[in-house]
């Protein structure tokens, strides 16, 4: 059967129907996680239809598997879904993380399982809807929907009495900028008469007074930057990650905000995005170092991982705002890479918490002799996080730094140098964490609590991710082929504005209109190190 015409709706409907089914079933034994696992696996299988039937011969900038149906006549709102090289892999990523999240929660959620898994499936529906929607109004509906289940998951299933405060902080940080985003979308509609993103972008319908365009672009960018989060808008991140259950924290940060910047900020406001790029490059570089330095000081595993996540997301922010092909390709690839590495790290930390009831590093020590498989997976994940060559983290970081060095904006060498120190710092705090938790003298918890090593369910979850680390590291072109179709069009640098952001003037040595790269990321991946450097 040919599912091309309806596969995107099917991807949305499976977890939605699954959530309704779970709400009707009794909460007995392992029925809830069992049904949730079946639903998420079925959703993941449906998402695999996209890369297996994706046409690489299609013109860049076009969407595939489209469904475009009139929904509301006035205002003109359409049920418009579609994917390209950017959203396709993010949909597959969301499909993969869901069953892994269910497996990670199998024993961790001991009560109110029905509530947990219904909210978890609704969160998946919202994420998939954000990645698939091409109508601004439809997109906004899924964007707002994503706030509700995540807030309830943190408030209901957080690990300490601070969970409600963390949930409220997360909700307010995300909701207030989202209200401003809605105002920006309504302004776009008044200027163009449509919410349809491809129509607005392809026909260049969005015009207006420069000040109005600038304010509208900021309404979009700030809402997305908070959700990433971009430094210094990260105030919610540490508390939310510290409190959120493992399955929720795996999809909490980064993906929705970064995708939205690439899709909507760059798609609707290209000139304004170039104008703000020097500032975003600076914030990205500062965020890398800031996140790393704060992570070094942490004694709580979850908070260490939270600031490590901030550093990784700042790396991606730096890459996409270089507006070079390798920077954009590396940034998009690193969204996938960081999501998988982060998921493995949070799963492993959750396993330690299940066994020993603490995230405090000071309670551990000497675990390597007691849990050899756990330490093996921790070391593999750590090497992926710090960017060891031949693993997934190296590809994105290399392309981002290469693109940053070739950026057309002023001070790019300074920010690249600052960002490079983050690579060293990330290795420092991650390897120090491994040393403190698994080596040295036996700590209080390992000495007093007898805990088992990995079971079959945990082996399956972690080995899937470990294999992906290696495959993405040595065969990155499989992903970059589609990603490059998005990176190349976005990398054409527009003429610099006459009134640049104060303190971030364009480099006078660089021509105003210039394509900053002539080779793509897949070509870099196939080249030798010397050729890649050139």
From TrEMBL:
Domain NADH:ubiquinone oxidoreductase chain 4 N-terminal as annotated: residue spans: 57-128
Keyword field: Membrane, NAD, Translocase, Transmembrane, Transmembrane helix, Ubiquinone
GO terms, molecular function: NADH dehydrogenase (ubiquinone) activity; NADH dehydrogenase activity; ubiquinone binding
Domain of life of the source: Bacteria
UniProt domain NADH:quinone oxidoreductase/Mrp antiporter transmembrane: residue ranges: 133-417
Gene Ontology cellular component annotations, sorted alphabetically: endomembrane system; membrane
GO biological process: ATP synthesis coupled electron transport; electron transport coupled proton transport
Pfam families named in the record: Oxidored_q5_N, Proton_antipo_M
Membrane topology listed for this record: Multi-pass membrane protein
Keyword GTP-binding: no
Protein location: Endomembrane system; Membrane
InterPro entries, alphabetized: NADH4_N, NADH_Q_OxRdtase_chainM/4, NADH_UbQ_OxRdtase, ND/Mrp_TM
Record-annotated membrane-spanning stretches: 6-24, 31-50, 88-109, 116-134, 140-158, 170-189, 211-233, 245-264, 276-297, 304-325, 331-353, 373-392, 412-432, 460-480
Family: Belongs to the complex I subunit 4 family.
Record PANTHER family: NADH-UBIQUINONE OXIDOREDUCTASE CHAIN 4 (PTHR43507)
Protein name: NADH-ubiquinone oxidoreductase chain M
Organism in which the protein naturally occurs: Granulicella sibirica
Taxonomic path: Bacteria, Pseudomonadati, Acidobacteriota, Terriglobia, Terriglobales
């Amino acid at each position: 059967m040919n599912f091309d015409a309806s596969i995107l709706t099917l991807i949305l409907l499976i977890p939605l129907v699954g959530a309704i089914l779970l709400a009707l079933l009794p909460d007995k034994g392992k029925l809830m996680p069992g049904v949730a696992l079946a639903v998420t696996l079925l959703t993941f299988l449906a998402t695999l239809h996209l890369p297996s039937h994706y046409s690489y011969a299609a013109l860049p900038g076009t969407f595939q598997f489209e469904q475009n149906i009139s929904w509301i006549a006035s205002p003109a709102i359409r049920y418009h879904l579609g994917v390209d090289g950017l959203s396709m892999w993010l949909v597959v990523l969301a499909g993969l993380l869901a069953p892994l999240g269910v497996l990670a929660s199998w024993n961790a959620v001991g009560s109110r399982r029905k509530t947990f898994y219904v909210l978890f499936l609704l969160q998946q529906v919202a994420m998939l809807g954000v990645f698939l929607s091409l109508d601004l109004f439809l997109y906004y509906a899924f964007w707002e929907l994503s706030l509700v289940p995540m807030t309830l998951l943190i408030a209901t299933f957080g690990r300490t009495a601070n969970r409600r405060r963390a949930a409220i902080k997360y909700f307010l940080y995300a909701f207030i900028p989202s209200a401003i985003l809605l105002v920006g979308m309504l302004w776009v509609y008044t200027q163009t008469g449509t919410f349809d993103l491809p129509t607005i972008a392809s026909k260049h319908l969005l015009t207006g007074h420069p000040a109005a365009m600038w304010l509208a672009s900021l309404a979009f960018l700030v809402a997305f930057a908070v959700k990433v989060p971009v430094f210094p808008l990260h105030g919610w991140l540490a508390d939310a990650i510290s409190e959120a259950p493992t399955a929720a924290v795996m999809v909490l940060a980064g993906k929705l905000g970064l995708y939205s910047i690439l899709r909507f900020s760059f798609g609707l406001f290209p000139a304004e995005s170039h104008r703000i790029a020097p500032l975003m490059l600076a914030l990205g570089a500062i965020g890398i170092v800031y996140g790393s330095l704060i992570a070094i000081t942490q004694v709580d595993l979850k908070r260490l991982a939270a600031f490590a996540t901030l550093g990784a997301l700042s790396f991606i922010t730096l890459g996409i705002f270089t507006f070079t092909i390798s920077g954009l390709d590396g940034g998009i690839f690193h969204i996938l890479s960081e999501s998988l590495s982060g998921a493995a790290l949070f799963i492993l930390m959750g396993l330690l918490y299940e066994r020993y009831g603490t995230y405090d590093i000071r309670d551990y020590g000497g675990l390597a002799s007691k849990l050899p498989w756990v330490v093996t997976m921790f070391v593999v994940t750590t090497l992926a996080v710090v960017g060891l060559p031949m693993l997934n983290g190296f590809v994105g970081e290399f392309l981002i730094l290469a693109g940053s060095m070739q950026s057309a904006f002023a001070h790019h060498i300074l920010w690249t140098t600052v960002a490079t120190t983050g690579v060293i710092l990330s290795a420092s705090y991650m390897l120090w964490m491994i040393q403190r938790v698994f080596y040295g003298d036996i700590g209080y918890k390992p000495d007093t609590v007898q805990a088992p090593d990995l079971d079959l369910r945990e082996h399956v979850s972690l080995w899937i991710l470990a294999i992906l680390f290696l495959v993405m590291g040595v065969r990155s072109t499989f992903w970059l082929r589609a990603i490059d179709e998005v990176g190349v069009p976005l990398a054409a640098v527009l003429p610099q504005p006459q009134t640049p952001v104060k303190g971030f003037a364009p480099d006078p040595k660089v021509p105003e209109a210039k394509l900053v790269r002539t080779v793509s990321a897949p070509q870099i991946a196939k080249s030798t190190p010397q050729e890649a450097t050139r």
